[in-house]
Amino acid sequence: MLAVDENCRRLRIGTRLVVQAIENMQKSGCDEVVLETEVTNLNALRLYQNLGFVREKRLFRYYLNGVDAFRLKLFLAHPPDSYYFYDGAL
């Protein structure tokens, strides 16, 4: 789970944390990153989409509160033709 205190939002802290995690995964030999986020969490969706994540699937009633989620995927190496490839640039 990734969360940034409300008083510290809009400082790109979340973006920097995710980018650092992606870079560490690349160094470890991972070829993709998969995560889920609530369909109503527009800020998180915007952050991940700006980093190249694509929506892979909608997961109905995924969370205990009954809210749906999107499964997002980022290919780090050898992406399918229709997917974005993270190259480390912001």
TrEMBL record:
GO cellular component: NatC complex
MF terms (GO), sorted A to Z: protein-N-terminal amino-acid acetyltransferase activity
Keywords: Acyltransferase, Transferase
Keyword Transferase: yes
Listed Pfam families: Acetyltransf_1
Limits of the N-acetyltransferase domain: 1-77
Family as reported in the entry's similarity comment: Belongs to the acetyltransferase family. MAK3 subfamily.
Protein name: N-acetyltransferase domain-containing protein
Species of provenance: Plectus sambesii
Lineage, uppermost ranks: Eukaryota, Metazoa, Ecdysozoa, Nematoda, Chromadorea
